[in-house]
Amino acid sequence: MSRWFCIFLLFSLPLTARPYQVTGTILGGEGFQLRWVFAVPTSLDTFYAAVAIPIFNTYTVSNLDSGSYFFAAYQDVNTNLIPDLGEPFGFYGGTLPAPLPVDQDLAGIDIELSAISQGGFSGEITYSGESTGTTLIVAYDNPEFTGTPSGAGFLMNNTGNGSYTAITDTQATFYALAFMDLNGNLQYEADEPLGVYGGATPQSFEVELPNMPDAINIRLADADVAVEQPRIGALPEGFMLGTPYPNPFNSETTIPFVLGTDADVRLLVYDLLGREIGQIDSGRMASGAHQVKFSAQGYSSGIYFIELVVNGMRSQQRVALIR
Fold first, then answer.
1. Which of 170, 196, 250, 260 has the fewest C-beta atoms under 10 angstroms from its C-beta?
2. What gap in Å lies between CA 152 and CA 216, rounded to an integer?
3. Quick check: bond before 99 cis, omega within 30?
4. In the CATH scheme, what is the code of domain 120-220?
């Protein structure tokens, strides 16, 4: 953990002027310890860090090049300047890190921290192949790796080798896999390097405070290398609705979501009373990452709920429209 954090701080100092900044609020957590936010380009070639303003918990990450970034935050409860298991932690996008496109100044990019009672696990990823790319570690509650993921983490480099920390959305029995996301769609494809904790027979582990396993080690292997590991289909098989941005917004917001498979999709708008008052988009959509614009023309200021419906399953995010 300390190794990547030192590298992260080393590269957080920009060498040349960059045009964009991202601002938001870190939500959740208790107490007055510092809340850190860091932005990691999906290319994983540098890192940027910022400390939230105490009490207000607002942050600004400046001097960002145009591109896509992973944003995450944590509350430094034990003041050791390192994100540790057991400390409130959160990704932009929810349980799984979602890439945030930055091609202009962005405001309202809020990150919600997990409750302290939530858990996580850590370990080492090893890889001897030649591919490079973002390595994602994903936790599921079943050895078939089906349904919606229950937690995730990623390596702070693009080599497929290094230590990681993953955050889970609850305390339970989990199974973990890792894959190198070569095409940037945040789901496993059959030609991407893959590894499963336990190999051909996925091994379970318990996350229950204060027990947060620290040796969930996984070896990645290229698709054409014969290793003992189970067959894995496209992941995730479910879907994920990310956090709309900006939020709050005054005219238009972007709704990110990821589909594990091709699916029939509807994006709906509800008011505070739970009444359906609009449809943003609908139709058959391909697997992978999507972004849909929601124009609030004709809507009054207030709180609304965006609902993603995928093959009958539903997920919601709250947005605030401010005129």
1. 250
2. 13
3. no
4. 2.60.40
